[in-house]
Amino acid sequence: MTQPQTLFDKLWAAHVVETLPDGAAILFIDRHLVHEVTSPQAFEGLRAAGRKVRRPDCTLAVADHNVPTSPGRVGAEADSVIQLATLEKNVAEFGVPYIPIDDVRQGIVHVIGPELGASLPGMTIVCGDSHTSTHGALGALAFGIGTSEVEHVLATQTLIQDKARSMRVTLKGRLGPGVSAKDMALHIIAEIGTAGGNGSVIEYAGEAVEALDMAGRMTLCNMSIEAGARAGLVAPDETTFAYVKGRPMAPQGEAFDAAVAWWRTLPTDPGARFDREVVIEAADIAPMVTWGTSPEAGSPINGGVPSQVTPDTERALDYMALRPGQGMAGEAIDVVFIGSCTNGRIEDIREVARIAEGRHVADGVRALVVPGSGQVKAQAEAEGLDRILTGAGFEWREAGCSMCLGMNPDKLTPGQRCASTSNRNFEGRQGPGGRTHLMSPAMAAAAAVTGHITDVRNLAPTGLPHRSPEYA
Amino acid sequence: MDAFTTLTAVAAPMPAANVDTDKIIPARFLKTIARSGLGKSLFDGLRYNADGSEKPDFVLNQPAYRNAEILIAHENFGCGSSREHAAWALLDFGIRCVIAPSFADIFHANALKNGILPVVLPRAVCDALMGDAAMGGNARITVDLEREVVIRPSGEEISFAVDPMRRHFLLNGLDDIGQTLQHEAAITSFEDRRAANQAWWPKIDAARG
Ligand code: SF4
User: Fold this and answer.
1) What gap in Å lies between CA A292 and CA A436, rounded to an integer?
2) What is the residue range of B45's domain?
3) Phi-psi category of B153—alpha, beta or left, where left has phi over 0 and alpha has psi -120 to 50?
4) Which residue's alpha carbon is nearest to atom 4 within ligand 1?
5) Is residue B1 assigned to a domain?
6) Residue range B30-34: average pLDDT?
7) Are residues B133 and B36 both part of a single domain?
8) Gap between the Cα atoms of A369 and A354, Å rounded
9) To the nearest whole angstrom, how far is the Cα of A21 from the nearest Cα of chain B?
């Protein structure tokens, strides 16, 4: 009998082209997603060496990080325009499939990959962006790479990789009401730390993970990099297959059935060994809020800043203008950002609309809702969510990364405090001097309508029809 | 990529953990389509005031460390985004080696691919080296990749280990793509096997959907 294998072992083995003498592998890459910020220097390198893109049919390009998300996309900065033009020139020259900025399918690379069926179970997926871990939700080995590696994949369709260690995080039981995949992710990171997953691929398992829809699984895998992991994984199951079925770039008909037959063989075998195991009771997870400048610096909403401070914590608190030992609830906010590859999917926007319905953004608060893709935006508009949100005083924007990273015109100004559904609260991440509190879409919506950080579970029902059964 | 053999240089101490890539090079500087020119924006938020003047307290602004080629930090250096601009900014400033107890994975790979040597040493050793570095411009530290040792100003040698293949590439300034393309036949045969055994595997066509 062969040794029981993990999902990661199977994905790895299925993609090894050759093992090198020192043990590293040349790994075949099935999908390479390319965006405007980390690719120009890679195409330049190909050009300088007279190389071609080996497999344009495994490559998909889109602009997302550095595009304005204002209605009509007005206000692009000059260097952003050059970056977009450079991508368009490069994809044309090298014959790379490209989704133009005015196409309804444009969006954040990690939202559109799964949405289009370009990202599938069983694949190796890379992108010059650390949150490529998102696609692991499908049961694919997906990880971020640097620009030299982007060039390497363009030229060879492979990467040289050492096999990572394996880690399993099992979430037993069920999440409580008002607690989401984002809270799971922040809870796990607070527990294992931002370096807790270094050198590892984390498989998320257990009842609470199986119960998540694909959007929730993507949120969870997205944040794996914030725990230092190379990638996150969820085993493909019926939820996955139902999600993939019929997506435009996925296999169709008999080809789909053949694919599913293989995908069913991928989940971790009983008895397979992981280098590290962590078990968490899902019922212990509360809505989370970060208070510091690292994603591990988070606490349950009913908790707060630790009273013991290290020099690193002291610096973070100074930056965040918070005090040791203080609670998080009641802290006034200036801006709310709902979007990003962590929480910019239709499910997230429905959740926000459910809380916004019958309420209004608090005075003096600016609240942005930025759909993760043009298709998410169109779907939300078809459901009338945009009207609920704009009626409640939220801004409704074009798709893109927006205020997640302080690169395009959407930025915090120094000292502004932001409730954000994104994934990083580093100093200056959302703009120089900006103060970021990471939380779930529901918690961010609650902050928007109350004007301060608040426990979404304490918001009284508005009396309007509710969309989510757990609140009914 | 420039080869890395031996470096004797001034080291700048940065006693902080989780020095993230947004700190190393904030996103607003990623709008460039070139690799060079990022050195002036390295550590922008720590290095400059809002009016563009230098913060005198920041280590790389101090006269003794302006020419530092080695950086010493605490755990998890380079965490956060995959932006290779972090490595390019360090290199453009003149940093060729970062010494820390641990590195984030993607930064570690990016550094090696740009001829920057990441040296992993225990926290206590890093602190001792920071003590050396605090002696200022005359306290030069040597990093010898050939022998895999760091030599303190006192002459004491501390061993470190680098993946043998990466070490070979660094010592010889080799580029990965050329190496991988020597295995092109294996890549082609992998693609052929895939096409024969799993014919369902779809091709990307942006016109679809
Ligand atoms: S939304 Fe934020 S984290 Fe996601 S890809 Fe864009 S910038 Fe990166």
Assistant:
1) 8
2) 6-172
3) alpha
4) A341
5) no
6) 92
7) yes
8) 13
9) 9
